[in-house]
Amino acid sequence: MRSAPFTLDLPFTTAFGVTGPDTDLHHQGDIDEIHPLASVSKPIAALAVLVAIDRALLDLDEPAGPEGATVRHLMAHTAGYPFDGADPIAQPGARRIYSNTGFEVLGAVVEDATGYDLSDWVEQAVVQPLSLVSLDVGGSPAAGYRGSVRDLLTVGRELLRPTLISTELWREATSCQFPGLGGILPGFGRQATNDWGLGFEIRDGKDPHWTGAHSSPRTFGHFGQSGSFLWVDPDADLAAAFLGTEPFSPAHAEAWPPLTDAILDRFATGGAA
Q: Are 182 and 192 in contact (CB under 8 A)?
């Protein structure tokens, strides 16, 4: 794997990488160093939830959370919970409210459905089958996992060519749930249309955004307040992951979009299903 380094003007230590569906394409920095993932925990937890759904242990439309809400609402941030707090502030399906609480509740639902502690289920459903070597899933499914760029790139390859879930469920998970809802994208402000899939944020036409101007509208993934991201662009057939030693700041918001565009300009091929 030989490619010129990308220029990244950030005053702290970072690591990032790029992968296609079969192999890594570029590494920069120490991709084995373990960092907090913050909210990049959510897509990993979501993948474990999707495995339970694919195995018929759980159903997207079964009741979960507040009255009238379902597993689908929890995964798509439309159950009505606030960012943090147990008391709903909206009716299910009425608003897109990004919520850590919703993922905590989702974790408890998965435990009831599978009979495993959530961390054990994530280990069995995701960590072991993908041979993730450093991912620590002992914390909150909302924001408590730790891991490396190397492991995030492996997750990215899985999300480009799913092996743990069916293609049909993957398509649903990466398609907008409850279309047309606006809401606040943390760190980037209110979006007139704030699209989310099942645990994955969908880029669509959001502006401003943490991915690039050249990113496909189908791009999905997550970023975290630890200064982390994982995006998957199925049209470019690429995934990229970023971790660093400083929490998310305006410097990240300024640096990530041009980095993403440079990655796409160098490596995009296109062709995912």
A: yes
Amino acid identity, residue 128? Q
Quick one: CA dihedral 79, 82, 88, 90, positive or negative?
A: negative
Q: What is the CA radius of gyration of the chain?
A: 17
User: Using CB atoms within 10 A of its CB, is residue 265 exposed (0-12), middle (13-18) or buried (19+)?
Assistant: exposed
Extract the tokens encoding 182.
Answer: 């606006």
**Those residues with Cβ within 8 angstroms of residue 111's Cβ, 6 or more apart along the chain or in another chain:** 117, 118, 121
β-bridge mates for residue 229, sequence order: 223, 242
Model pLDDT for residues 72-119, shown as the tens digit of each residue:
999 999 999 999 999 999 999 999 999 999 999 999 999 999 999 999
Judge contact between 174 and 222, C-beta under 8 A.
no
Q: Could you tell me if 234 and 216 are in contact, meaning their C-beta atoms sit under 8 angstroms apart?
A: yes
Burial of 54 (C-beta count, 10 Å sphere; 0-12/13-18/19+) = middle
> Which residue stretches of the chain are H helix?
41-54, 71-75, 100-114, 118-122, 149-160, 167-173, 250-267
To the question of pTM greater than 0.85 for the whole model, the response is yes
Beta-carbon contacts of residue 89 (< 8 Å; ≥ 6 apart): 80, 81, 82, 97
Q: Is 263 exposed, middle or buried (0-12, 13-18, 19+ CB in 10 A)?
A: buried
Q: Cis link prior to 208 (omega < 30° from 0)?
A: yes
Give the whole-angstrom CA distance, residue 154 versus residue 210: 21
How far apart CA 99 and CA 101 sit, in angstroms, is: 5
